[in-house]
Amino acid sequence: LRVRSFRQLTVLYLCPAVTIDVISHVILYYVLYAVPGVSSTTFAAIFAGVTLVMLPILFILVSRVDKSVIYRRGIPIGIVAMIGIALYPAGQPVWPVYVLAGILALGLAASEIMVWTIFPDVVDDGELAQGERNAGSFSGLMFLIRTVASAGASFLVGWVLQFTGYQATHHGQGTVPQPESALWGIRLVMLVAVVVFMGTAFFVARRFVLTHARCAVLQQELDAARSLRHTVAAEA
After folding, report:
1. Is 170 left (phi over 0), alpha (psi -120 to 50) or beta?
2. Confidence at 213, pLDDT banded by 50, 70, 90
3. Do residues 76 and 110 lie in contact, with contact meaning Cβ atoms separated by under 8 Å?
């Protein structure tokens, strides 16, 4: 955590991961109560499909554009799409929700994928700072923080829904009518998660220290440091 680029990368990893966790939790309530008729399976399939399509495109862009720029470029349109999803009126045709889901996935795909193209650069930065390569420690700490954050997000979602008056169903009961406050709670949990977490990721990505230029210099410094570590002193 003393390595600045690692602290930044952890935030860049955590924000989209927790955002997806929150959406995955709340979309089940959304399709049952807020906008009945929307299929959670189709919603998830759109996310997966868009991410797969974006993979080769993003890997081509990596050699030409700063990774942090690619990471943040789609976030604003993702936030706008989530505003549309969260505020979409019930009783209307559901296909616009699927279109908005595709735009949201487009906005988040780069953030999810770019983290793992940035990771080797951060490991290099850590090696230069610490004198040894600690990829396992870096990834392990990232996963630990993500696990704790996901558990916290899951608890928070349940607490917010309970606070807004959500009426839980019992086994075999099916759906039950929900108060207007609970419907707004379902909508706003998704919206606030995307705006807060992805907005944070956007601003951290704008200040990310490992640009293309810095990575080029970093490789030269790392090569020199490795050569120095492996140089054997001549015998007297």
Report:
1. beta
2. confident
3. no
Q: Summarize the chain as % helix, strand, coil (round to 5).
A: 75, 0, 25
Sequence-separated contacts (24+) of 81-86 with Cβ below 8 Å = 81/107, 82/190, 82/191, 82/194, 82/195, 83/191, 85/190, 86/187, 86/188, 86/190, 86/191
| Average pLDDT rounded to a whole number, residues 48-52 | 89
Q: What is the pTM of this model?
A: 0.86
What is residue 127's predicted lDDT score, i.e. its pLDDT? 86
Q: Are 21 and 154 in contact (CB under 8 A)?
A: yes
Q: Which helix (H) or strand (E) holds 162?
A: helix 135-163
Residue 174 is predicted with a pLDDT of 62
| Structure tokens that stand for 39 in this block | 């299929």
Tens of pLDDT, residue by residue over 70-103, are 999 989 999 999 999 999 998 899 999 999 999 9
What are the distances in angstroms from CA 220 to CA 131, 213, 216? 15, 11, 7
CA–CA gap between residue 38 and residue 134 (Å, rounded)? 45
